[in-house]
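User: Structure tokens for both sequences below?

Assistant:
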Amino acid sequence: PQTAPARLMRLRDKAETLKAAGVSMLRVLRFGAALSAWDGVTFIERVLERALGAKQVVIGAGFRYGHDRGGDVALLRAEGARRGFGVDEVPPQELGGERVSSSRVRAALAAGHLDEARALLGRDYRISGRVIAGERLGRQLGFPTANIRLDRRVSPVGGIFAVRVSGAGPDRLPGVASVGTRPTVGGIEWLLEVHLFDFEGDLYRRRLAVDLIAKLRDEVHYSDLATMTAQMHRDASQARELLGIRG
């Protein structure tokens, strides 16, 4: 867990995205010591044959499974022929002559290259979650925020962003957001803080979907709140300009 790559999406977000794409049933295996010990044939037998009764299996190019990645496409096809299911291998998607992959998306996000991440994903990169109670520091500084706990050991993105937010009303609303640990106020956990422009209302416990449109800067430790507040005003002004919002 200490060296695992940053998660791009939470399980709930993955499930909702798959449902929107037309998937009617999702089965999730809990990965642990027992499952990790299964070889390729055991995985096929217990999951594809017994649990799912698979008739057709669709996998990505080069997909490996089973203990020590011992299972491959050839094994899957051979076992499928014996057990009565077919196998489709989907070729990789490419962009700019390179394979589209989660590692490539992570690298683009970590570098703040949201345009590249958008091209790879086919959409804006989104963080979603339920708004939790905060310390109301933003409200005291003139920037009330909706706070969303990321529930990640490491976030794939960090910094200050111009955003558009769904879930606060019938339309996507513009705003500015911070993704980080809030070093100026001694924070330690990853938190998404969103300030919606010209918005009044209570967002507590609402589920929001925050689309990152452009990165403004990295998170910085400030010596005092006054300096931080002045920078927040500059960030808000820049975000408004990037999003085409007057005010």
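Moving on to the next sequence.
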Amino acid sequence: MYKKLFIPGPTHVRKEILEAQAAPMIGHRAKEYSALQGEVTPKLQKLLYTDQRVYLYASSSSGVMEGSVRQASTKRVLDTVCGAFSKRWHEMTMANGIPCDKLEVPMGQAITPELVDAALAQDEYDAITLCLNETSTGVMNPIPEIAQLIHEKYPDVLILVDAVSGMAGVKIEFDAWGLDVCIAGVQKCFALPAGLTVAAVSDRARERALQVPNRGHYFAYDQMDKKYEAHQTPATPAISLIQALNQQLDDMFAEGLENRFARHLEMAEVVRDWARKNFALYGDERYLSNTVTNVENTRGISVAGLNEELAKRGAMISNGYGSLKEKCFRIAHMGDLQMSDIEWLLAQIDDILEL
């Protein structure tokens, strides 16, 4: 049975976007493909409020995260951890033998500028990894404020941001915030099938990468730059997904970016109010995500059982992640979901649980 996905990725994909992938295949070195990427790149720059480079990788976000951290530092990296997905930055940094330290807060808490300031003052760091939206906890970190602090006090530190479950759902002003790398897969707020990652990269990050030995090859910015001006990629791109992305970006601009961001917030507020009334919100309410809400299972329901019943009605939510399994459940309100979808889902849960 078809199920509408209210999980934090992959998200529900509209029929029109699925059909956009069925356009005839084109050669990745042909003028037709260059025209396609030449259309998509400026649209992504508009979405991210940047004049700097935006790359397209045929990869999951994790691949681009690892490739980026390999190119970021000639000294030492500070990895910030506030949940399961921000922890990946640290695991990748260590796995690649890059000198690093970890700034970690308890699950449900946010990384704050004050914590970053105290940690960066301890050593000679030249890069920091951050997570915009920690999918496992439903916490959104204050990236603009953190970035401002870094630029004021630690100007040589590159700012790498995992925006996987936030980009295209919340406003990211790449240039104004002074970010250096901002990464997201398209299977979340972009509401596309998985397999393509968008990465905005600053000029200073590209310059730093050239100073890093053993920076890798597939994800290397200098490799991407060899084909960038020709509106191509060094390796075969995910052509069908980029065709769908082009359509989706047009639809985003037709909705209006500010309207899109407001819709995500409005859906979040409805879910939060419902959660406060019937359960509780997990984590620090000062830093709640606008794209996924983590609900604390104060009633001790079977989350797996709830999902089984929802499946019969054509919906799916997410259990708590990792150690939070059955202790929490997550409702995503991202991508092309509308308020009517959220209201329908909550009504189904109310009926199943007799709330």
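User: Anything stand out in the second?

Assistant: The first strand starts at residue 4 and ends at 5.
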